[in-house]
Amino acid sequence: MESGAIFPLLYLPPIEFFKELLNFKNEIILIDKNEHFPKQTYRNRASIYGANGTLSITVPVVKGAKLHTCVKDVKISYDANWQRIHWMSLQASYRSSAYFEFYEDAFAPFYHQKYDFLFDYNLELLNTVLKLLKQNVALNFTEGYQAEYPQLKDFRSTIHPKITSSYQPKKYYQVFEDKYNFIPNLSIVDLLFNQGPQALKYL
């Protein structure tokens, strides 16, 4: 019998992540900080709605890390000015949305202040989004790595850019939908910037 869920820590997670997280808010929520860092996942990548459709923005990590680097030990690379690129991408995508200016000051510091570790960066972003959604969610963290958690629903490999999700979201207005129609399950920022305080009701 499942009595909670275990999640990976993602960068500006997709809407599905928050839908599931809030489903378990009254149960045990475990964030895995000891898993081996998998490449090409939402742990350091987010999908937003750009002027040409879906746009992936990726936080670069320090190269040369061992294959089995623990996710809490993965360092962010600043060899390229990715923070400026991400912030410009967010502005270009959402400046004309109804609520970008409403939330802009909450997100701007993440693209000017440097963080050493990806895990710390993602955690602060997650807490910021939960605060904007006015949700108090008790997050617990793993103390070691376990491949399986029989008592928990495991989302560590199911919320993935290369796996088609069974999540069927309702439509909401998106800035460029007249060009490319509705794009489901983008980053939570797409929902926030377009729906504002109604985002929680949507979730």
Describe the protein in words.
This protein is α/β, with parallel strands linked by helices and 203 residues long. The chain has seven helices and six strands. It has helices at 15-23, 82-94, 100-107, 118-132, 177-180, 188-195, 199-202, and strands at 4-7, 28-31, 45-50, 53-58, 140-141, 153-154. The chain has a four-stranded parallel sheet with strand order 5-2-1-6, with no helix packed on it. The chain starts with a strand and ends with a helix. The relative contact order is 0.25.
Based on the model shown, name its key terms.
203 residues, alpha/beta, four-stranded parallel beta sheet, two-stranded antiparallel sheet, globular
The strand order across the widest sheet is 5-2-1-6
The average pLDDT is 94
Terminal CA distance: 25 Å
Q: Major β-sheet, in short?
A: 4 strands, parallel
SS content category: alpha/beta
Strand content: 5-15%
Helix residue percentage: 25-40%
Order of helices and strands: EHEEEHHHEEHHH
Write a brief caption for the model.
It is built from seven helices and six strands.
SSE arrangement:
Blueprint: E1 4-7, H1 15-23, E2 28-31, E3 45-50, E4 53-58, H2 82-94, H3 100-107, H4 118-132, E5 140-141, E6 153-154, H5 177-180, H6 188-195, H7 199-202
